[in-house]
């Protein structure tokens, strides 16, 4: 870091650590690889912090570095990007279905989150990435386009297709043989088993 205060680097970049980890977990599907990817991202960002333009979107800059490192180092190992299946509470959960809080521990909420996770995993990687960047990380269309290197129209069409596929998958889960309302112990359809 030429002519840059290390404290400035920390103050500028550390607030995005959790977002970077979630994105790395999405890309790698593995906790250890996600941690390594975030560490490499911070090392590279520190090395090139003199190129960062103050006042620009630091989170997008860091996510771009992370994605480029992933493509360069990890893409050769695995052609398919999967969302990791974490078992411990507090680990990566990209989204919660509408009306379901992440903190809600009820059976119905856990089933809804599980169904959403399965629906996300069913999406092709290029669609899953766009919907998670938009809906979980809050990036706008232009920022997503810059992050993943595609035109604005492509981002919009991918997001549209991703959301439609998610709706279709979630509708299939809801109306399947063990739908949310038909599962034992779930209000609205409790049965004796």
From TrEMBL:
Homology family: Belongs to the sigma-70 factor family. ECF subfamily.
Calcium found in the keyword field: no
Boundaries of every RNA polymerase sigma factor 70 region 4 type domain copy: 115-166
Keywords assigned: Sigma factor, Transcription, Transcription regulation
CDD domains linked: Sigma70_r4
Lineage summary: Bacteria, Pseudomonadati, Nitrospirota, Nitrospiria, Candidatus Troglogloeales
Gene3D superfamilies the UniProt entry points to: 1.10.1740.10, Winged helix-like DNA-binding domain superfamily/Winged helix DNA-binding domain
Species per Swiss-Prot/TrEMBL record: Candidatus Manganitrophus noduliformans
Protein's name according to its UniProt entry: Sigma-70 family RNA polymerase sigma factor
Transmembrane region(s): none
Tree of life domain: Bacteria
A GO MF label: DNA binding
One BP annotation, GO: DNA-templated transcription initiation
InterPro entries xref list: RNA_pol_sigma-70-like, RNA_pol_sigma-70_dom, RNA_pol_sigma70_r2, RNA_pol_sigma70_r4_t2, RNA_pol_sigma_r2, RNA_pol_sigma_r3/r4-like, WH-like_DNA-bd_sf
RNA polymerase sigma-70 region domain mapped to chain residues: 17-79
